[in-house]
Task: structure prediction
Amino acid sequence: MPSITSPEALLSAYEADVALKRRRFMFAAAGLAIVIFVAGWMAEVDLGLFFGNIGKFFNYITRIFFLDSGPYAGQLVLYDIPGWFWGLGKWLKLLADTLLIAYVATVLGAAFGFFLSFLAAGNLGVSPAVVFIVRRFLEFCRTVPELVFALIFVLAFGLGPVAGVLAIVVHTTGALGKLFYEVLENIDQKPVEGLVASGASWIKTMRFGALPQVLAGFASYALLRFEINVRGASIMGFVGAGGIGQDLMEAIRKFYYPDVSAILLLIIVTVALIDLVTERIRHRFIQQVS
Result:
């Protein structure tokens, strides 16, 4: 009988482990296939229609890179860059509106998330009932899609950037509130316990015992959220909530193919620049803390 450390035993154990992993993979793949099938059936997905019209998607993508009017009609957009970016002045103004929407929404959402996070953290002496209620409220804020909030606020306040700002504020409050209270729950409790023992009030305990430990992390998360909100604000115009998205949706609906590619390029470049700048600022925060 081979020993437990013999090559035969090791090979047998290895083959059994591989077979077990293979069975687990097959069960997982089968489960995923069933879920996809059920989801497609409930959504009434027509595969024949999908594959029959998929060529239209590639045709649309191709057409946005060709001019459809003027002396260079039918040529690549690069043949007539001034004609391609004929609305640059208007689009830059709308991009500025988009950035302002994202900035104001991030500041307000971070402020609300900041205050609510101290009530949602379970290690700061807050009543369990308050912690439960605040956490459920934050879940609601971040679970409902921004576009749904935007539609509601458009109906309430009318078309314009106000609806976009409010929609992103609500979602940002929920997202940052969760990130912030998770950071708070991982702080060193000794400074907090020392202040409590000395008779400091709850607000002073948070100010001098908890806040210094988490401030840099809060700022880093807020900057990351600003990047996300810039992308989110870019599509707020789809429902009339201001920003460059409104002109993009109009160009899509009216089949202004070159305008679609020009606006998309402006959005991509703007978001990429914002990402680079905020990434460097975040790294500086992290380096200062470490």
The longest helix spans residues 7-42.
